[in-house]
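Anyone else keep sequences and structure tokens together like this?

Example one:
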Amino acid sequence: MGSTPQRSRRRRWSALLGAAALAVTAGGALATPAAAASVDVDYPTHCVPPPIAGIPPIDGTTTGKITVDNATPKVGDTVTVTYTVVKPAASNPTDLALPADIMTPTGKVTLGGAQTGSVTVAGPKKNDPVPGKGPFPSFSMTGTFTVTAPGAITLSPGDYNIHTSYILELDTPCTVTNPPAPVSETVTASADPPANTRAISLGSASGAPGAAVTVTGSDFTPGATVTLAGRSGAAQTADTATVTADAQGRFSGSLVVGDRTTTGVVAYEGSAWNAEKGAGPVAYVVVDDTPVPDGSQKLTTTVKAGTLSMSQAGDAVQLSAVDFGTGGASTGTLKTVTVKDFRGGPAGWSLTGKVSDFTGPGAKIPAGKLSWTPACATKAGSPSTCRAGSAGVVGSAGATLASAPDATLTGGEFTADAQLSLDVPAFTPPGTYTGVLTLTLT
């Protein structure tokens, strides 16, 4: 008889936990800042609590959101997906306060459109404490999929399950009542062209004005007509010739270079230069051996290549305060980063950032809670034009703040900024939390 009260207490705790697990699964997923294209969607869910809970199924409306780290991937790229249950359909139905870090979510994201199937997602065993009768915190679940087809791929919230580990190990599965749920996010995939392995070499690196240079090529389309052309910086000169690639895609031809401003030679298929069907430029110098007239002096100058560098307007950002019990977005503005690309070559650049966890008084805010909305500007006259990175999570894995593509001639001066938002959980202990955002320029 001595063990009967203990078993009775165990059943009572199990029932309370079953109810708690059900309330969580009708809603929550760790709030993750959304990419600009994603939207919240509502969909009915049918949640079945563990049998030991003694609670009937609950049918409610869940608000969910799907976000991705790359909304414009290429075929073959891997896309990271985050499934967030934004608004639970129920709160803690009991007076029992639940401790932190007892809930582990898993689920599915449904793919449609150009690519069908599902993505398995899972979240960490992490949650804020839940007061009795109080609202449940959210949980996030992440996973990846590989793009296999070009076109618009839709992503919709799917079924999910919450596993609770508190006294007993319990599962509460929730299914979408009328699948598929509404589309929350769409990615547009582009075809990934095969790698361009075309290559050319020159018989000499310099010559007098009007001299012919031998151009040898490989890996061009067999039988294709190939144009050989001089290049002056980013512009093509009037010096051109055509050759035909043999059955193995090789050729050898002669190009007469008469333009004294020529800095390189290219070869390409088609009617105009195309980086995907061309090769070069290979450096070539026209040696101007024009005699200097009597009473004259020949003046020569050299433009020296510089470096790729960055500087910051400061090294500290104070984000706005949030209230204990409410939490939410702690916002601020990244100190302006100036990028100077004075190399003068064909290479572009990429400026990325990653952040550490925000540590505070005996607690931390995960790095994945920080998101940004990047912006960049190009100084007038720059050969390159910078591109802002996508809005979304920064996290410990990192994200792109700004970049400039490869081109025939690159360079310039650029400024990059971002609006920052740290999603602070409602019951984060009061105090100051600090994280380090590291920027890398390559």
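And example two:
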Amino acid sequence: MKLIYQHLLSFLLIILTTISIIGYAELDYAKNQAYEQNFHRMEGYAQSLGSLAVAQENSGEDTLSVQFLDQLQYVLKGEQVHLQIFNAQNEQIYPKSLGMKLNSSVFKLLKKGREIRIKNNNVQSFYIGQTKDAYTGVLIPWFNNQKLIGIVWIGSTVRNVEKPIMMAKRNLLNALLISLLVGIVLSLVLAYYSTTKIKRLSRATEKVATGDFDVQIKHKDHDEIDQLASNFNRMVRELKKSSEEIKAQEKRRDQFMADAAHEMRTPLTTINGILEGLQYDAIPEESKPKSIDLMRRETKRLIRLVNENLDYEKIRSNQIALTKTVFDASVILHDVKTQMMSNAEKVNDKLVLDVPEKIEVYADVDRFKQIMVNLVQNAIQFTNNGTITIVANRIDHGAEFRVIDNGIGMSEEQTKYIFERFFKADPSRAKLGFGESGLGLAIVASLIEQHGGKVKVDSKPDEGSTFTVILYDQGYEQFVK
């Protein structure tokens, strides 16, 4: 069933249910009021007749003569009121009916002064018996100085009493029909209003499913559907951003695959050429040591490329168990300077350490060294004839390390992706034999995240870059995903 019909049906059900409840309550009230008024009227007649009967008995006259009762019955006939009178011996004296008596248990109740209301004598036949037309009325005893002198049954037809109830039913039916017509119109308007918004959402969703992330739905923040539209717009914006990031990563991955193929093909071609030269004695004897040394360097280069990929996958999937201890980082930083000095000298870079004599840090020793080596390698790669400074100091509940260079720097757009896998800020500069895979900084970010630390970069084109690493003390590590 279409949503507009579901809304229409639900609105109509609510209207019908409400009117039915109100109508039932109103009819029940009208019915009770009609019977209550009739009972009061009949009781008034009965008490008036009772007063006459007592007065006549006190004056020594016969209790309510038959002639008087016939006249009274004639008067009340127009109102469809019926009389029956019984004497103190439970004998019906008006109208005359041989052997007609009240039920003994009913008579006992009346002798005790109990008044009995009968809603329908054909249903409650136990009291007065059944008649052709159903009657509703009262049985009331008459007393004179606590002496029973008679009992009267006075009632009117049920049909006459229920006339206002039938009128109320007709009015209710008319109200129901009018309410249904008005309800259908209002329901159509409300349902159309709601479903139009949902249709807009549906059409927008279809566009997003086809890859159109420029969809935005206009809304006024009036209701939950507008709130849903607002959330949808935000979701589409995030999807667009994610799609753009995925495309950028795909582009970088393709670039990496091309670079990796090129970088691996070159050493493999070199190794294969040397092997063929050795096989066919095409290489002079005096050149063989240099050729073997070249082949060894190219083999190490291939191994390094493979290891960097394997390293990153292990770190990213938390397969590397960190053995974190408190140690003096200044010793490791001096080792890093010594290790990286030859690489820096190749491009006329100067390595400077600005660290205290002792600086404690809580980390895995080997992984800390790997982090610093990768950061220094990255700085050397993008700095020629410059200075690379390693700074370390203690902060609240942790230690801060900075690698500062005055190299080519990066744009704001490049800094967004610098820690992502395969990203190279300047591929044309990646030809120094290290860091060429675009994984070095991705490994750094992953290792620092596993340590519960932080890493950030500040950079400006042609001014250099500053990489800042914060490693926290035990118990103060940040949340690790």
